[in-house]
Write a structure and sequence with these properties.
By secondary structure, this protein is mainly α. It contains 5 helices and no strands. The protein has helices at about 5-15, 25-35, 45-60, 65-75, 80-105.
Length: about 110
C-alpha cells in the first residue's frame, strides 16, 4: 500500500462528508455477532525459553572457556576468560530480551 497520500485522502474525505451516518444500530449488531478473538496461549513461549536455555547450557558446559570462567568466579580471581564469558552471557541475554520484546510488540 502507498501510505504517502493517506493524509491527503483522509482530508478530502473529511471535507466531503459531514460526519457519521446513522445506521440504525447495524454496526453494533454486527460487532455483537462476531466471535471474540482467542488469546494466544503462553505455554509455547515458556517451553521455548526453557528448551533454549537448556540447550545453551549444554553447549556451554562442554566449553573449556566456560570451565575457566566458572573456576575464576568461584575462586574470586577474575581472569580475562571469566570476564569475556560473563560479558558474552550478559550480551546474549539482553539480545534475547530485546528480540522477545520486539516480537511481542508485533503481536
Amino acid at each position: 500500500m502507498n501510505s504517502i497520500h493517506d493524509d491527503d485522502i483522509d482530508a478530502l474525505l473529511r471535507q466531503s462528508f459531514d460526519g457519521p451516518i446513522a445506521d440504525d444500530g447495524f454496526c453494533d449488531r454486527v460487532m455483537q455477532q462476531l466471535s471474540r478473538r482467542r488469546r494466544p496461549s503462553a505455554w509455547p513461549l515458556a517451553a521455548g525459553v526453557l528448551v533454549g536455555a537448556a540447550m545453551c547450557s549444554l553447549s556451554l558446559f562442554t566449553s573449556p572457556l566456560w570451565r575457566a570462567a566458572w573456576h575464576g568466579w568461584l575462586v574470586g580471581e577474575w581472569s580475562n576468560s571469566s570476564i569475556i564469558m560473563l560479558s558474552i552471557m550478559a550480551v546474549m541475554s539482553l539480545l534475547a530480551l530485546a528480540w522477545t520484546l520486539a516480537e511481542a510488540d508485533d503481536h
